[in-house]
Write a structure and sequence with these properties.
The chain has about 425 residues and is of the alpha+beta class. It is built from eight helices and 25 strands.
Length: about 425
């Protein structure tokens, strides 16, 4: 077992301790002062961004939320990542109870704060961190709380993330396969960086304790089954599962088996580290006329198959900060000068694959220019879009089965969508 936390502190932005809980008796409130002095030194170092500080035998792990610092101190060789994750879970639970975590909510609900901390951590080891489960036996109102005498669901139930007795008149499960494309193109038109971040986002409205099984066109699985010749298969990197997934089962036969939480959650995230062809390509030619007028000729081209259509396309082209707009013309969609962003914003509601559109705009500049003026740093062209029923990776859901002991029939709904993440093209 990894080392445990010694104490948990809540500090304001000036380093004053608002609430703290001692779990092992080997640190004191003095550690909070030492932590904050080290934090101030750390902030002076622009290259230091890690959320861990070590000083005189004590490790401090911290996060900042709103006007608070949440800090765990430990004298043992602990798992820093797990304790930082625990701090994020504390934020989620407190926001669930107090509808927002700030200094004022801590002061107004300090009794509930200590009750929650006692349930969430025992002798420095994280315990229950699911807000829905904690709500089953710690109930709050405007003046205090009521603690029921029954044990927590996490003890009596097979899983800690799902309560018993859930019932729906219509049993449904929704699965969205969402991929975000990150691309950076330099001024020579070369793709410098590209990757795809994917997520399987689920919303479950199922009664009882359903067992779900999900099958993907996973290359490792299909090769093991001798089905490599049937359709496209994929190989994903950096797969991360929700805690409900049985990891041992996945490692053995690549089956994604799980009892889902109720409501919305991310079942799986993954990354595709590959050279991605830009799905929407934009070229911008800028011509200077008589030192007081700029002419922009912007060409947008969709580089995906014509059976797909991009929606809500937004192309943001930077313009000089001292420009004033005169006229804009587009062959599709609408464009307007956005002076608050120093950009021309071109919006296209529907952009089918294999199409090309033009936008032309004229801007006026001041007739007088400072001789020693510093040239403006050119911002990149930024693009946003969504492409329904399409994925870059080619991931496919082969089946989604729901089995529950009562035998009800559930309706699974699956959809795919690709969107632009950090999608930037540098101007020449």
């Amino acid at each position: 077992m990894t080392g445990a936390a010694s104490a948990l502190f809540f500090l304001d932005v000036k380093g004053r301790v608002l609430v703290w809980r001692d779990f092992r008796g080997d640190v004191s409130a003095v550690q909070a002062e030492k932590f904050f002095s080290k934090l101030i030194e750390k902030e002076g170092d622009s290259e230091s961004q890690d959320p861990v500080i070590f000083d005189n035998g004590v490790t401090y792990m911290f996060i900042q939320h709103s006007n608070l610092y949440l800090m765990v101190a430990s004298r043992q060789n602990c798992n820093a990542a797990s304790l930082i994750l625990f701090l994020h879970r504390v934020v989620q639970v407190f926001e669930h109870y107090f509808k927002g975590l700030e200094e004022e909510s801590l002061r107004d609900n300090f009794v509930v704060v200590y009750e929650l901390l006692d349930e969430m951590m025992d002798y420095g080891y994280p315990q229950f961190t699911e807000a829905k489960i904690l709500s089953e036996f710690i109930k709050t109102d405007a003046y205090g709380m009521e603690v029921t005498q029954r044990p927590p669901m996490a003890v009596t139930n097979a899983v800690s993330w799902r309560s018993e007795g859930i019932k729906y008149q219509k049993n449904e499960i929704f699965l969205d396969v969402v991929e975000s494309v990150n691309i950076f193109v330099n001024s020579n038109g070369q793709v410098i960086r590209s990757d795809v971040i994917g997520a399987l986002k689920m919303r479950t409205y199922l009664s009882g304790m359903p067992e779900c099984k999900l099958g993907l066109n996973d290359r490792v699985l299909l090769e093991a089954q001798g089905k490599t010749g049937r359709g496209k298969s994929i190989e994903l990197d950096d797969i991360k599962f929700h805690q409900c997934v049985r990891l041992s089962r996945f490692e053995n036969d690549r089956t994604i088996s799980f009892i889902p939480p109720d409501g919305a959650f991310d079942l799986m995230t993954y990354r595709l580290d590959t050279q991605v062809k830009p799905l929407v390509w934009v070229e911008a030619q800028v011509e200077m006329h008589s030192r007081s007028r700029l002419h922009f000729a912007i060409k947008a081209r969709s580089q995906f198959k014509d059976r797909s259509t991009a929606t809500n396309v937004r192309i943001e082209v930077p313009v000089p900060s001292d420009a004033t707009n005169t006229s804009v013309r587009t062959s599709m969609g609408s464009a307007a000068y956005a002076p608050e962003n120093d950009a021309l914003v071109w919006k296209i509601k529907s952009f089918p694959g294999g199409k090309e559109y033009m936008c032309r705009a004229d801007f006026r500049l001041p007739s007088i220019v400072a001789e020693d003026g510093i040239p403006e740093k050119k911002a990149p062209i930024r693009i946003k879009f969504e492409i329904p029923y399409f994925t870059v990776s080619g991931i496919q859901v082969r089946y989604l089965k729901i089995i529950e002991k009562s035998g009800y029939q559930a309706l699974p709904w699956v959809r795919y969508i690709t969107m632009a993440g950090e999608y930037e093209l540098r101007l020449v």
